Amino acid sequence: MAEINSHTPTISPTISKPCNNNPPQHGLNLMVLLAAIICALLCALGLNTMLQCVFQCANRVLTQPLHWIASRRINSGLKKKEMVALPTSIYTNSPHESPLSTTSLDSNCAICLEKFCDGDKMKLLPKCNHHFHVVCIDKWLLSHSSCPTCRNIINSNDSCFCILIS
C-alpha cells in the first residue's frame, strides 16, 4: 500500500496584525478644534476692541463742551483775502525809518526763531502787535486764526488795523 502523504495545514506561531496603517484620528481632531478655538478668541478680541473704540468716540462727541467745539471751528484758519489785509512792513534796525523797528519788539521771529534782518518782510498782527516773517505767519494762518504767541483770535474786521506814527 502506498502510503499517502497527506499534508495537513499547520498554524504558524506568529500573530498577524490587521492591515490598517492609518494614524489615530483623535490627534487631528484635537488640532482642528484647538485652531477653531484660537480663531474664535481672536475674532472676539477684535470685535471687543472695535466696540470699545466706537463707544469711546460716541461718548466723547456727546460729552464735549459745545464752546470747545465752537472754538475749534473758529480757530480753523483765515481766508487768503484776510491774510493779505494784515499790515506788512520791511524790517530795519534804525528806529526812525520804520515803526516796526522800535526797541519794544523782539529781534527774532517766534515761529522760525530766526533773527530779523534788514529788508525782511514782516506782518504785524492786530490787537496783540506781535510780528513775524510774512512767510512764517502766512503758513500759520492758513490753519489757525490766532496769534502763535498769545493765542488771541484774529477777526476779519481786525485786519484793517493801521499803524499811526506820531
TrEMBL record:
Gene Ontology MF terms: ubiquitin protein ligase activity; zinc ion binding
GO terms for biological process, alphabetical: protein ubiquitination
Gene Ontology cellular-component terms listed: membrane
Pfam family, one: zf-RING_2
Lineage of origin: Eukaryota, Viridiplantae, Streptophyta, Embryophyta, Tracheophyta
Top-level taxon in the UniProt lineage: Eukaryota
Organism: Cicer arietinum
Uppermost EC category: transferase
Gene: LOC101511482
UniProt name for this protein: RING-type E3 ubiquitin transferase
Entry's EC annotation: 2.3.2.27
